[in-house]
Amino acid sequence: MNIIIAGAHAIGTHLARLLTRLNHEVKLVDQDQGRLNSLGTDYDLLTYCGSPSSVATLEILKVKSADLFIAVTLDEDMNMNACYMAKYMGAKKCVAKVNHYEFADPKHQEMFKRLGIDSVICPEYLAGKQIASGLRLSWVRQRLDFEDSDLVMLGIKLREEAEILDTPLKDLCDPTTPYHVVAIKRGGETIIPGGLDSLKKMDMAYFMTTKQYIPYMRKIVGKEHYVDVQKVMFLGAGDTAYRALEALPSYLKPTVFETNKDRIDEVLAGLNRTHLTMVNADGRDISNLHEEGLMSTHAFVACTGNAETNILACLTAKKFGVRKTVAVIENEEYANMAASLDIGTIVNKKALAASNIYQLMLDNNDVASLRYLMTANADVAEFIVNEGAKVTKKPVYSLGLPKGCTIGGLVRNGQGELVTGHTQIQAGDRVIVFCHNLKVEKVENLFC
Fold first, then answer.
1. Cα of 363 vs its chain's centroid, Å
2. Claim: this prediction has a pTM higher than 0.85
3. Measured distance CA(10)–CA(35) in Å, rounded
4. 66: exposed, middle or buried (C-beta count within 10 Å: 0-12, 13-18, 19+)?
5. Nearest to 324 by CA among 69, 142, 172, 171
6. Distance separating alpha carbons of residues 113 and 122, to the nearest angstrom
7. Any idea what DSSP says for residue 437?
8. Could you tell me if 146 and 152 are in contact, meaning their C-beta atoms sit under 8 angstroms apart?
9. Kind plus residue range of the DSSP H or E element containing 103
10. How far, in Å, CA of 108 to CA of 114, rounded?
11. How many CA atoms lie within 13 A of 173 on its CB side?
């Protein structure tokens, strides 16, 4: 696929590295030659110094033959203008990163499509939504809900209290078991488990189940003593924090530390929450945290613009007994380090944005959603099964799924169901597929 990326900042360079490793033809354009020079030799791509909203630049890049044009500069106006021009000049699909959620609001998407932008991505909104979702269960590291169903994927860190440890999965699970283990992260390795594999202490296990069995899952993983989140502290009141606060369930009582008084006024004016407490103080100061009730807080979210600050703040909160911690970390090396330090939930905005953009590279009629699990280095794709698709011809055990792929569940007529080897997938089903070290495109043809 011929792809042009405008903007050599965090998201642009992350996408460039990802897409070149997937053997796509990538061109990266930026107005700053220094940023392009700093990429080094790790990127097998063409670079060009120029304005992505210049007709001359777009002609030099041969935008008329681009399969995908991605505008992710820091200037949302430039991103949208570049997409308008790229689409008019022949680019097949265009995506623009924006800073203000009003542009990404679903009710405006049809308007932007008519103007030439196929998708509008707001990384802060995506991150805020993920944070809010993760805070609903104190004992879960990561939670994915699949729309219009009760199907859910839970990422859970296993401790010695779990009653499902050290037993082969063939003995632990049968077709009537209300969950499936779709993946295991053990140390630096992600395992797509078979019947002879077993769960170990300190594994990060990914379970597919339905919402009615969440209390049962809590019991078997030994997390019943974890207090449900009601009080949560935020370090920083930036755009990501704002979107998280906006998406939080009403029963949660957030306390937010922010040193900028003007920003506090903006947040209070924009949000309508009855239990929101804004503190004009430095949340890195332990005495300030204690004064606002750190010891009785159930969750701590560090979402400043500094990864080191977020990691250290979460470690401090853990030290003082906060079970649930969330850190916003953009640097992948730091993210992997944070996972090894048992930080908790890690949110990476550029990875979230990349997942949304990556979905545009697939057949949108067949892929309902695509989420990237950074801690497992895996994609979770939701496919809509077409009439006559290969997966409808045989039971799951006879499909010969590629290595690194497993089917966790499906949604049929709005009802979530777990998948066994004898499940017969039908046209119209929405099938949840877990892919590790595997291009989603290699699985896509099974559902077409």
1. 20
2. no
3. 11
4. buried
5. 142
6. 16
7. S
8. yes
9. helix 101-104
10. 10
11. 26
